[in-house]
Amino acid sequence: MKRGNDLMVFLASKVFILSIEQVMGRVRNTSMSVLLVLLYCICFESGSATDTITSSEPIKDPGYIISNGSAFKLGFFSPEKSTNRYVGIWYNNISGCTVVWVANRQKPLGDSNGVLTISEDGVLEVLNGEKEVIWSANVANSVPNSRAQLLDSGNLVLQENTTGTIWESFQYPSDTVLPTMKLSANVRTGKKVQITSWKSPSDPSIGIFSCGIQPPRLPQVFIWKDGSPYWRSGPWNSRIFIGIPDMDSVYLNGFNFVDGQDGNFYLTYAYEDKSLSYFALDSQGNVVLKYMSDGFKDVVWSALHTDCDVYGKCGAFGTCDPQNTPICSCFQGFEPNNLEEWNQGNWTSGCVRRALLQCERVNTGGEEGKKDGFFKLKMMKVPDIVVWSSASENKCREQCLENCSCIAYAYETGVGYKVGDVKKIVTITVITGTIFLSICTYLLWRRMTNLKGRKKKAKEILLFNRAEAQPKFHNDNLDQVKVQELPLFNFEKLASATNNFHLSNELGKGGFGPVYRGKLPNGQEIAVKRLSKASGQGSKEFMNEVVVISKLQHRNLVRLLGCCVEGEEKMLIYEYMPNKSLDAFLFDPHKEKLLDWRKRFNIIEGIGRGLLYLHRDSRLRIIHRDLKASNILLDKELNPKISDFGMARIFGNDEDQANTNRVVGTYGYMSPEYAMEGRFSEKSDVFSFGVLLLEIISGRRNSSFYHDEQSMSILGFAWKLWNANNIIALIDTMVYEPCFEMEILRCIDVGLLCVQEFAKDRPTVSVVISMLKSEILDLPRPKQPAFTERQIPLDKKSSHSGQRKFSVNDVTVSKIQGR
């Protein structure tokens, strides 16, 4: 069955609502299921094979009857942790006792002397040991000589040969909906057939939760708590309940809603195999769909997953995200109705507009001004207080504008809605469509103006920034990169893809600014790097990264998909790396276990191949200048990709090194000649690679040694172990195996050769790769690394102030200080 995702709904503020419905998967835990069903109740196995009760053939505790096809059993049981006795119906072929209906819920038997029988006047009754009636079927007109039969549907019917069915348990359900059962509501009489929860797992008496249908405008299913809405399904659109994302699931495709001629509305559920599934309302207020397989039960769907699924959790004009703290927030353009309660975690009073709508200002004597408009909010559930309209979408919009009490409209093909009193609207937390809600004139005007301004200025700004970046490089090198060919992304598209750059989508932060996970309409996942206004980096670093990486293609370099420049917004769009960065694995005590030696060696080799491409094999010779663990991303197979080229430099064909007064990079990874004198070359990246290699082998951050009294870095620690002939102590115990010892020791040797103090002593990347592959068997003895047991001295040759930029703890800062 097709999901109803064509729904459109509109709202008055610049905001993009998060989809907080998570896809509900099938949970299967057989061993736990066994435990639960064994504890659930105790059902005695003593009875007959008949499926019928008569006045002469009652059921005496612990007797039972079984339906004709052996699907269900009717008898006496005790819930877990209870000695009370109840008459109930449960599955016959499921391990344990899965009760689906209880007769004497409100009045249990205190002993095992109970009897289920037919009275002389034809009423089904439960009697105690003193022959007192403790429960009886609600029969309007009893008929003598009637009999009760348990059907294979789980329905217990009281019938008589001439008059047919007199009473049936399906009309008086407990907490369970079985296939072919009907939930109903009569708009004329007010009579309802709905399920009610147990008070607790050990007490079948009626609890505080109930579940049924709410007709007649746009029928939907509700869960009520003490009579107040607790959850709702969203309206029925003649095919599905549009507020349930999983309605296209094979388990949820058997629903049908019928508008009866007698004022009755019926909801039926018919699964192909009627004996295999059922819905139950538990004592905590959650409706769950359970599926039987191989004699056990699995929960394959549930109505509520988080607090955000609760009806009205954040009040009117509030939105809920379970990953946020606090979980509730107001739409843009709105503010908490009661700030004191809001700050205390009581959000039910919701939010109110900061500015009146135009029609409200006219009615209160304010300025008339321009007409109100609508603002679009995607992925919303239609409020339960709606006015149905059969008009077209445009007509629906016009009707809402003409009616000051209409604050929003929604439209789906074949179904139109107008939303009335906003104070009664539930918090929109379940996400299935798009809402258009009235927006105050000046907010709408400002919003539209900003959009037009962004689009108009985007091209000018991009061209300006391209020109601004050019003096940094040689013109002949820039000619090799046509920046204008880089795809431009629309700001609104990126905002939508990242749920308005929501904190829950933030992958991390760097000197450039935050990086967000996003998903394009075509399903492609992306990483959006957004320039922070407070960042020490700016347009130069932004354009530098665009120029450097736009035409680079290598399996070990992250791929740039495009950029966005609109107004003050500057963003880079990359391919999404599901495993984030190397440091997130390497320095996490739990995740590092996933990096065995073979994976770590593959990462080392991959980084080396990426560097070789930058230094020698690409059409531009590029020095990265900020190689570190957080700038190495990992794809789903844990293959490394070098990222973050904001500080990179392009070298001309005749250049071997360069000087700068603007030192950039990260302490601990910077070579001594670069950190102290501003000189950088390929050997600067080799030094950073050596530090990174030692981190990968040891599983420890370079900075974790920073305050050690004996050595200020991992280099000093490794050198100390080398001189003591105890270098094996450097190896992470998580990866050490005797069979890999020689290969790991060779990698340590290579790492120490890369971090030697003088650049001339370090190998090139091509030599490094040959060493790692054992193509060069005899390695030279490494000389003392830089930065071992001494502090970094100030540059004695430079007494002037130079601009220095460093990434400290993976956060780039820029400052002016003496050198």
From TrEMBL:
SMART domains: B_lectin, S_TKc. InterPro entries: Bulb-type_lectin_dom, Bulb-type_lectin_dom_sf, Kinase-like_dom_sf, Pan_app, Prot_kinase_dom, S-locus_recpt_kinase_C, S_locus_glycoprot_dom, Ser-Thr/Tyr_kinase_cat_dom. Gene3D superfamilies: Bulb-type lectin domain, Phosphorylase Kinase, domain 1, Transferase(Phosphotransferase) domain 1. It catalyses: L-threonyl-[protein] + ATP = O-phospho-L-threonyl-[protein] + ADP + H(+); L-seryl-[protein] + ATP = O-phospho-L-seryl-[protein] + ADP + H(+). It is a single-pass type I membrane protein. Residues 50-171 form the Bulb-type lectin domain. Its main location: membrane. Residues 800-819 have a biased composition (Polar residues). Residues 501-777 form the Protein kinase domain. Its EC number is 2.7.11.1. The keyword Iron does not apply. GO terms for molecular function: ATP binding; protein serine/threonine kinase activity. Keywords: ATP-binding, Cell membrane, Disulfide bond, Glycoprotein, Kinase, Membrane, Nucleotide-binding, Serine/threonine-protein kinase, Signal, Transferase, Transmembrane, Transmembrane helix. It comes from the Eukaryota. Residues 359-468 form the Apple domain. It is found in: Cell membrane. Residues 790-819 are annotated as: Disordered. GO terms for cellular component: plasma membrane. The chain crosses the membrane at residues 425-445. GO terms for biological process: recognition of pollen. Belongs to the protein kinase superfamily. Ser/Thr protein kinase family. This is Receptor-like serine/threonine-protein kinase.
